[in-house]
């Protein structure tokens, strides 16, 4: 009752405070849930948690035995996890025993059981039957809510053609000529309880998954759904051709229970039951699908979007952008501004002007654009430009003092750089720009970019350790002589900001130290760079639908941006290599080249790849995705000449060396020193 009645919200939170900080109670609730069963006609035990995980329906009595307990566990355990650090979660030396379970293996088992439970609820609510096309209708004055048919299909649609709309999902209705059947209050409450328990369980599951992303405690691959159904080619197939939307399904979100009729749209495509399931999973539980499969789905969504923004009938070239090579960032900021280039999804043709003011030779067939984008990224995200700083681990995040350098225009630059990153991902380019994990998590956040204290370690490990020391300090915190302020330096002058009103006059004590910790973390992670991150995220959303990116966690997003740090598959590179200028696959020099590459260690192979393509990491889905394809061009017979490259064309210019030793020596010298590097 407390869970569903808003009038009792105060009592709910009082009870939460009592139950959530009792680890023993949390563990006992889980043990009770795990043990609830019924006996089959053969007198065999069937556990309700496993029964639901199979998508099987429950009779009323069994439903009431387990659903409220799962909801209770999800709420109190999630609430409790917010208060403990990653070090406490992992039971590291020097921390107190605070976890409700004996070991992390038990937590892992709980997480995976909860994963299967959530998948079962999705299946239970969307059985394999024909999806009825019905209208939302108001049921009664007492139950001021709306439900759908027996399939319980409730979802929201985000228009593919409007990336910024991805930040606020739009409700969609299914239409039919037949009226909705009447439902009893009991069936309505049952459906409502399913929605609540799904929301609560997913919230806990995401919290446990984020812990695993920051510091692993689950076996590799264990988050993936156990059913082969979710890893089949059928699952990752594109949506039906009429479904030109990406569904950010709100199944489990309270707002759909009383959607406003004015927000419903009837012009959305009808999806099959399997598509609805798929989109709920991708929206709420994407981590149960393999990363490779999600990348395929993401690329398909981008491909469909490109069909609208880069149509074949528009020809090979798009708008021509004139850029001075010595002023790449300045010119790009002006020419690619929203005023001059409102739709950055379209094709762009780059025309470079050299230092003498003359046009550089050549026509941009796509390669020059990619080289330009690579150089723009290097300049724009260079800490020396002032927009980004580096953490102690040399990872990038927004510089909160950039306004001192760029004055009133600084937010426009963050919006621009967000668009640049969006364009890079949109064009399936890889760039070696390492972002701080907390910054990527802010971009993916559904909560206005707000992060909790657990992410502070990726920004300022020393401050994070100091705050944990204050938390565990057994003496009198007053001895530390702290107040609710934060000090920082601006152009050599010490500045002071208050963490709360009148903070300079409030001392940190044993009773308010938790408030101090969370206010300090909030200041560093959120308040200090709120405007910077909001502008960057808005620019990113101007090119890419953020809800697509939410299929990935912050670690996976970095891989999507920079590629995976994996060994280079020489056989795959050879299969997808082109030859020109007289070289063929059977030419003796080409045969020697591949023998040399086989002899290279992985570090040398990465240097070779960076030398030719400007990125040391292979494409996510293999070298068949590299555009333009890796190509080896005949560069003459001058044996004193070093190999050179044209990164805009992914082209290696290789002289016709006479022996393997000379080829290896010259190639190594070129890739290790950058000698002979050419910009075309």
UniProtKB/TrEMBL annotation:
Residue stretches making up the HECT domain: 340-680
GO MF annotation, one: ubiquitin protein ligase activity
The positions flagged as active site in the entry are: 648
One of this protein's GO BP terms? protein polyubiquitination
* Record pathway: Protein modification; protein ubiquitination
Q: Which Pfam families match?
A: HECT
InterPro entries per UniProt: E3A/B/C-like, HECT_dom, Hect_E3_ubiquitin_ligase
UniProt entry keywords in alphabetical sequence: Isopeptide bond, Transferase, Ubl conjugation, Ubl conjugation pathway
Superkingdom as given in the UniProt entry: Eukaryota
Query: What is this enzyme's EC?
Result: 2.3.2.26
Could you tell me what reaction this enzyme catalyses?
S-ubiquitinyl-[E2 ubiquitin-conjugating enzyme]-L-cysteine + [acceptor protein]-L-lysine = [E2 ubiquitin-conjugating enzyme]-L-cysteine + N(6)-ubiquitinyl-[acceptor protein]-L-lysine
Subunit structure, as described in the record? Interacts with 26S proteasomes. Interacts (via the HECT domain) with UBE2D1 and, less efficiently, with UBE2L3.
Please report which protein family the annotation says this sequence is part of: Belongs to the UBE3C family.
Q: What's the name of the protein? A: Ubiquitin-protein ligase E3C
- What high-level taxonomic lineage is stated for the organism? Eukaryota, Metazoa, Spiralia, Lophotrochozoa, Annelida
């Amino acid at each position: 009752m407390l869970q569903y009645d808003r009038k009792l919200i105060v009592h709910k939170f009082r009870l939460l405070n009592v139950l959530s900080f009792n680890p023993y109670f949390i563990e006992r609730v889980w043990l009770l849930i795990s043990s609830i069963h019924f006996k089959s006609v053969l007198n065999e035990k069937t556990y309700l948690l496993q029964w639901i995980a199979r998508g099987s329906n429950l009779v009323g009595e069994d439903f009431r035995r387990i659903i409220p307990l799962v909801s209770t566990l999800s709420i109190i355990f999630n609430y409790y996890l917010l208060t403990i650090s990653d070090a406490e979660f992992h039971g590291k030396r020097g921390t107190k025993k605070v976890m409700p379970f004996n070991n992390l293996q038990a937590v892992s088992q709980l997480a995976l059981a909860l994963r299967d439970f959530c998948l079962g609820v999705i299946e239970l609510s969307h059985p394999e039957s024909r999806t009825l096309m019905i209208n939302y209708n108001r049921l009664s004055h007492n139950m001021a809510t709306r439900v759908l048919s027996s399939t319980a299909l409730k979802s929201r649609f985000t228009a593919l053609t409007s990336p910024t709309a991805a930040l606020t999902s739009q409700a969609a209705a299914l239409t039919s000529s037949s009226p909705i059947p009447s439902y009893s209050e009991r069936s309505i409450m049952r459906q409502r309880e399913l929605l609540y328990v799904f929301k609560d369980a997913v919230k806990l599951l995401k919290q446990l998954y984020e812990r695993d992303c920051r510091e692993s405690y689950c076996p590799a691959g264990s988050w993936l759904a156990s059913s082969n159904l979710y890893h089949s080619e059928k699952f990752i197939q594109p949506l039906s051709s009429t479904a030109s939307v990406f569904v950010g399904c709100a199944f489990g979100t309270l707002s759909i229970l009383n959607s406003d009729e004015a927000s419903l749209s009837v012009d959305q495509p009808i999806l099959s039951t399997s598509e609805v399931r798929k989109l709920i999973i991708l929206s709420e539980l994407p981590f149960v699908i393999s990363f490779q499969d999600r990348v395929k789905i993401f690329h398909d969504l981008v491909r469909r979007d490109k069909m609208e923004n880069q149509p074949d009938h528009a020809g090979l070239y798009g708008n021509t952008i004139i850029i001075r090579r010595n002023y790449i960032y300045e010119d790009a900021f002006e020419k690619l501004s929203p005023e001059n280039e409102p739709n950055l999804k379209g094709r762009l043709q780059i025309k470079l002007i050299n230092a003498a003011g003359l046009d550089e030779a050549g026509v941009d067939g796509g390669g020059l654009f990619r080289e330009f984008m690579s150089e723009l990224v290097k300049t724009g995200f260079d800490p020396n430009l002032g927009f980004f700083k580096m953490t102690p681990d040399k990872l990038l995040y927004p510089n909160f003092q950039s306004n001192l350098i760029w004055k009133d225009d600084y937010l426009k630059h963050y919006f621009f750089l967000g668009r640049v990153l969006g364009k890079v991902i949109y064009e399936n380019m890889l760039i070696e720009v390492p972002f701080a994990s907390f910054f990527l998590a802010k971009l993916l956040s559904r909560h206005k970019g707000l992060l909790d204290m657990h992410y502070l370690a990726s920004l300022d490990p020393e401050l994070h350790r100091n705050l944990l020391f204050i938390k565990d300090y057994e003496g009198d915190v007053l001895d530390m002589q702290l107040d609710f302020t934060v000090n920082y330096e601006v152009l050599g002058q010490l500045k002071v900001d208050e963490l709360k009103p009148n903070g300079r006059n409030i001392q940190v004590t044993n009773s308010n130290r938790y408030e101090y910790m969370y206010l300090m973390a909030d200041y560093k992670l959120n308040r200090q760079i709120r405007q910077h991150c909001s502008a960057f995220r808005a620019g990113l959303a101007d090119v890419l639908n953020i809800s697509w990116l939410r299929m990935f966690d912050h670690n996976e997003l970095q891989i999507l941006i920079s590629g995976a740090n994996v060994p280079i598959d020489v056989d795959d590179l050879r299969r997808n290599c082109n030859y020109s200028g007289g070289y063929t696959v059977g030419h003796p020099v080409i045969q020697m080249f591949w023998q040399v590459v086989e002899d290279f260690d992985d570090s040398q192979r990465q240097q070779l790849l960076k030398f030719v393509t400007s990125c040391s990491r292979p494409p996510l889905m293999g070298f068949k995705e590299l555009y333009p394809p890796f190509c080896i061009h005949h560069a003459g017979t001058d044996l004193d000449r070093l190999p050179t490259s044209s990164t805009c064309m992914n082209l290696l210019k290789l002289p016709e060396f006479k022996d393997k030793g000379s080829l290896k020596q010259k190639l190594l010298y070129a890739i290790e020193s950058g000698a002979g590097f050419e910009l075309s």
